[in-house]
Amino acid sequence: MHLPRTLLTPLSSSTRRPLTVHTPLFVRRIHISQSFSSKGNEEESDHDAVLRNIIQQTTLGNKSFSYIQRGVEEVKEGGDEEPTNLLITLDALGTLYEIKNGDLGQEYTQVAKECGVKGLLAGDVAKSFKEAFKELSASHPNYGYATGMKPKEWWEQVTIKTFKPLIPFPVPFPPNLAESLWTHFSSNAAYSIFPGTMPFLWNIKDLKGLATRTRKGQAGWKFRTITIGIISNSDDRIIDVLTSMGIHATHRAISLDGGLDHLPPKSFSKKGKELYKSLKGAGVASRASRRAIRKISETKNEVLGNDQVVDFVATSCGLGVAKPQREIFETAKKAAARLIAMRFGEEEAEKGWEWYHVGDNRREDVVGAYEAGGVGILLDRNKEIGETETIVEGTEEGVGYKTMVVGDLREVAEFTEGLSILYKAGGEKVPYASPRG
Questions:
Q1: Peptide bond into 199 cis (omega under 30)
Q2: What does DSSP assign to residue 93?
Q3: Cβ pair 78, 65 in contact under 8 A
Q4: What is the pairing mode between strands 312-315 and 225-232?
Q5: Quick check: 84 and 108 in contact, CB under 8 A?
Q6: I need a surface site. Which of 116, 257, 333, 415 has the fewest CB within 10 A?
Q7: Quick check: helix, strand or coil at residue 339?
Q8: pLDDT of residue 201
Q9: What was the pLDDT predicted at 160?
Q10: Could you say which residues form the signal peptide (predicted)?
Q11: Which of 349, 379, 384 shows the shortest CA–CA distance to 366?
Q12: DSSP letter string over 78-99?
């Protein structure tokens, strides 16, 4: 028996397609107990091969997910029962979206041109930006968090240090350049969403519905809750960027104990705006009716999902810790447990957890997740055809981690049940010889 593939359209397509729910985990156990031999098995899928290679070399063990009942209480460990809570965290830039055309220098050069600075080369701007960013990151880490500098001031200094060496005398430094760049990079004006991002979130929304039905006794799926979080080494403008792309984050992590701040939508849904306009035209609109419509719109967004909903965002600027530091991942896990406790009760949050983090950076995302007790999945859109796993260098000398490689986020949503096996086998340490050595 083989793990089903459900990509009903090419991966380059952003068209929504039906999601096939994978077979229950007990079927997986029957599958993995069978003889694994790649020879002569022409029907073996890429993901079967990943599981076969990892399971053959790893003793399966049941990992526990640290759970925080409240921020001030001690950490409780999940028992031996099968996990029923699923947490998937994602990197942002490079995973959900990218700089337009993949060219930061071009974006900076274009904004500078609009502010009156002409004749600059994108390559020169990109090089100068890299140096300025490195300098400010060293003197004022985490976008100024470590030294009390506000993020906007931090980026203003980056702008000055980027452009001052390039603007020829006697051209004055544009007084609106820093503000223009700050605004430009606060929305999708500077970014392009990857084709697989929205279909991935659509699939996750479908799976959340299945988890809800399971929790209510109407279905028999493995997971009873699904939580989606974003962990980003960035400032909090990421929330506005996501909103501009139609992705609404409902909460922001504000403290290392998993404390959360609720983030209501900043505007009415389209239907909400139409309703208020009709009431206003009829002369019966009021502040109370506006507030009521907004509340309904927010509830619909969170429960039914007008936008694609992310449960929380954790940023390095907001927390003072950055990937691959263990603390930012631990904060995300605590925030997830807190959300489930708030929504469905502490008993639900105390059940077992599985956690996966997906990102495009080997050190920050994959190694960081493994060393924080989870499973890292490498997103590599340029991976070789047929490549399903790789070894990433760990922080311990001579040691690496075997990890799954995907070329599109949809593969993560469509392989949810199979990931359970990776979770038990994940974190396998293997010898690693650095190419630098």
A1: no
A2: B
A3: yes
A4: parallel
A5: no
A6: 116
A7: helix
A8: 92
A9: 97
A10: none
A11: 379
A12: --SSPP-EEEEEE-SBTTTEEE
